[in-house]
Amino acid sequence: MVLFWDQFLVGKYNINSLNTLYLKILNQRLVYNLFTIFEGIPLSFKTLNLSPKLLKTLKSIGYTTPSEIQKKSIPLLLKGKDILATSQTGTGKTASFVIPILENIQENRAIKVGDERYKINALILAPTRELVLQIHNKVEEYGKEFSHKSVALYGGIKLGSQIKAIRAGANIAVGTTARVLDHIKNGSLNLSELEIVVLDEADKMLEMGFIDDIRLILSQLPEKRQSIMFSATFPKPIISLAKSFLKHPVTIEIDPLNLSTQQVKQLVNYVNEEEKSPLLCKLINDNNWTQVLVFTNTKLQANRIVDALKANKIEASAIHGDKSQGMRLEALKSFKDKTIRVLVATDIAGRGIDIINLPYVINYELPLNNEDYIHRVGRTGRAGQKGEAISLVCKKEIDKLKEIETLINKKLEAMTTEDFSYEPHIKASNRKSKKEDKKKGVDLKKAKALAEKMMGKKGMEEKISNKKRKRGGEKPTNKRHF
Questions:
Q1: Residue 296 in contact with residue 364, Cβ under 8 Å?
Q2: Pairwise pLDDT comparison (212 vs 455), residue with the higher score
Q3: pLDDT in tens, 221-253
Q4: SS3 for 417?
Q5: Cβ 142 vs Cβ 62: under 8 Å
Q6: How far apart are CA 46 and CA 58, in angstroms?
Q7: Which of 132, 148, 183, 354 has the fewest Cβ atoms nearer than 10 Å?
Q8: If pLDDT is split at 50, 70 and 90, which confidence band does 2 have?
Q9: pLDDT at position 428, please?
Q10: Same domain, 12 and 55
Q11: Do residues 148 and 102 lie in contact, with contact meaning Cβ atoms separated by under 8 Å?
């Protein structure tokens, strides 16, 4: 087939020959099509049957060749199919469902009145405010030639401004489950005419305990609809939800045996736990890094890391659940503008961070959930760019590291940093010391038992002696005292 393609390029076959070949294949009832025949030949977005105005927009923002997940999902979604799709983080999942939504739902330029103002045609659910805003921005960016309007629904701000945006003609809503439910209960969001629903980062929503909210929202949707589930990973609970949520879905998996992003160089630096903070500062200062995303597991630890960085004259901010939405947006903006060098984030707040050409991600601690490692690493190396992810691993995290390496089917390369040496295995001398301590404990126990036995014997002898002495004092004597 490669030979045929080369001959076609040099003119041996013209377009009529190509059509003839295609008809012959159809007549032979082979399940091929032109895209399958030329698999491996780069496709452009023009091959995906998109509208001219959308192609114009994609070209203006530099999109020329669709990613693997986009090539496989967009044609199916344009036909109205339900899909269950998993792909590496940073491979264009958002565009994979936003582009078909823009094409499939009908544009309506008429001004809505009354209760019609609260009806929407597409709903996209995401686990965090940051991811909601990222998707909302992409809808507006890709859809600038359409009359569609998007609204971002998330907590931390009053309902009023969001209701105003819904009334203004929004027909696409992107939101967190809790805030979407707030609007449904308030009567400011009507899902009775919904055509498309998307669950993005579905695994994280289940992990965060949103399953009841999801089911409650789904119960409000019309029976006839298109349903889509996207995520970087799909554990068993997701499959269970998919069975009740999707109708005859097409499953799409991209690189299922190698989940971690290919473009990211992944390293591990072994270090003593108490030296993680000095090591982080040294890596940033010695390498003169200007944009570093640091992940940690707790809000308290995130604040401590920021304090340590600032003490070393490294500008940094933290984003986590205790920060207001305004503070989180300001920190993210400063990081994008490179006003600050380091952004420290927890896993939940880190979802949805989309920085163009982000060069470095540091795992200050390995994540509590192994799958979160994939999401962390996926913040760099996005859209085919190169990136580097370094994990600072102490002794108690060795087993967790092995689990992650098994998950991603990859052994992480070890790196060393001057003045920071570490041996992750327990030394023999330590084991010997423990045995000696144990032996000493046994000897001490024996000595104590022996002492108690001796003391007990001595106490009996003293008791007998005292008894004899007492009896001797009562015995009559012939001696007379004058």
A1: yes
A2: 212
A3: 999 999 999 876 677 777 888 888 899 999 988
A4: strand
A5: no
A6: 10
A7: 354
A8: very low
A9: 38
A10: no
A11: yes
Q: Distance between CA 448 and CA 36 in Å, rounded?
A: 82
Same domain for 355 and 244, yes or no, is no
76 and 10, same structural domain?
Answer: no
Do 361 and 229 sit in the same domain of this protein? no
Do 104 and 198 share a domain, yes or no? yes
- The count of structural domains within the chain is 3
**Sheet containing 264-270: order of strands:** 316-319, 342-345, 292-295, 360-363, 387-393, 264-270, 413-414
- Tell me: pLDDT of 109 over 60: yes
Place of tokens 């940033």: 284
Q: Is the pTM of this model over 0.70?
A: no
- Tell me the C-alpha distance between 45 and 97, whole Å: 14
Query: Which amino acid appears at position 101 of this protein?
Result: I
Asked if 271 contacts 279 with a C-beta cutoff of 8 angstroms, the reply is yes
Token duo for residue 412: 């992480």
302 vs 308: CA distance, rounded Å = 10
Find the domain containing 14 and state its range: 1-41
Same domain, 187 and 221: yes
- Same-domain status, 190 and 339: no
The span from the CA of 232 to the CA of 91, in Å, is 10
Show which of 253, 286, 311 is a domain's final residue. 253
Residue 285 in any domain: the answer is yes
Quick one: 325 and 399 in the same domain? yes
* Both tokens assigned to 394: 């102490």
What is residue 232's predicted lDDT score, i.e. its pLDDT?
67
Residue 131 contacts residue 89 (beta carbons within 8 Å): no
Measured CA to CA, the distance from residue 434 to residue 279 in angstroms comes to 30
What is the CATH number for 278? 3.40.50.300
Beta bridge partners of 119: 190
At 292, list the tokens: 């570093």
* C-alpha torsion angle, residues 416, 362, 340, 358 (rounded to 10): 110
Inter-axis angle of helices 177-186 and 211-218, nearest 10 = 40
